[in-house]
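Can't paste images in this forum, so I'm doing it all in text. The chain is below; anyone willing to post the predicted structure tokens underneath?
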Amino acid sequence: MALAPSISTAARNDAANAAVDRLDLGGSPAELRIYSGTKPADANASLSGNTLLAALVMSDPAFGNAATGVSTAAAISSDTSADATGTATFFRMGSVNAGVFTPEIQGEVGTSGSDLNLSSTSITAGGTVSVTSFTYTQQG
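Text version of the structure:
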């Protein structure tokens, strides 16, 4: 027997909003951080030997209200001076409170078919890293 329950559109919207609204819990705008190295098991797991390549500041609020389970990010500022050189493999989005970053969402980085698609996964220290759009989709 398959375990694949579905939820209503209203429930999908509520779930998507609950996930992305956690980004706005800090006293500062949320951040999208891009890392190299092996992706941790989930957003709760500690980083281990990963390098922060870039940190992009998100709008406040970070996302708009979901429609049909999809929430679209507001403008994300470019990082005009990337922190390090490396190959982007995963990202974390999180709230920032008193300078402390708390990850809430994690995903893979690639050039297509990934959770976050960049024009290139090669990031150079001091270079510019931009994200022109991002959507969070709650499965139903």
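Helices lie at 9-21. The longest strand covers residues 100-110.
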